Amino acid sequence: MKNHITQKLGFLGLFLCISITLLFLGAIIFFITARGIKVISWEFLTQVPRSGMTAGGIAPAIVGTFYITLGAILFALPLGLACAIYLCEYSPKGIVVNIIRISINNLAGVPSVVFGLFGLAVFVKYFKFGVSILSGSLTLGILVLPLIISSTQEALLAVPQSIREASLSLGATKWKTIKNIVLPTALPGILTGVILSIGRVAGETAPILFTAAAFYTRGFPKSAFSEVMALPYHIYALMTEGAHPDKQRAIAYGCSLVLLLMVLCISGIAIFIRQRQKGLHG
Description:
Layout lengths: L1 H35 L5 H5 L2 E2 L4 E2 L2 H32 L4 H14 L3 H15 L6 H25 L3 H9 L4 H30 L2 H6 L19 H10 L4 H37 L1
Helix pairs in contact: 1-11, 3-6, 3-8, 4-6, 5-6, 6-8, 7-8, 8-11, 10-11
């Protein structure tokens, strides 16, 4: 009887935690939607800003955010995947590997503004990429690299060792086993890390403040070396600068809603692919 009551209390605690989490999530979505939907229109989504960012649209910021996010993931995913495969499948077990893993975990805790200063010193100044999409993408790619490595490691370690042994016993090489058996099985977990990384990259302000974002531009980027407007920095600029705070605050809520929808759409696509892979390998 005592164990039954303890179990009921445990489930009640879990239910309350989930409910509180969903409540905050719903409150954020409702608040942003209620404030931002008022300014959403076709012109708002497709036009360039005018009149000191108090009129027109946010198309350059949407395009800039998409380019920076895409560039960061394209840089971080192959590098993080290769690093995780080496650590889990090839590296000898020992103190050196443990130090590398601890270092990766510590890197994940570094404040984002420090990554921004690193990107400014290395990519903008040393490599002379300038304030550009390339500098911002590389900086944000390094920012989410520990997250991708850690999630990929967990996904690879979750694959049963017996599957690897069965493949090797049939004559497959270690690399063929990893490529054809381990990676497809671990893909849902890897995509989970990618989904979290997309949200992190799309919402960061401090790193792109030093490496990629422009305060105001009327055009679209012409190359990887162009500076761009980005939604996170655009929201920050609207809320802190300008002579029309009421108009700018309304536009900032609209930008927040667009950014939220962008992240949800990209994450939704990744979740769909993940669920499909689960079905294929489940």
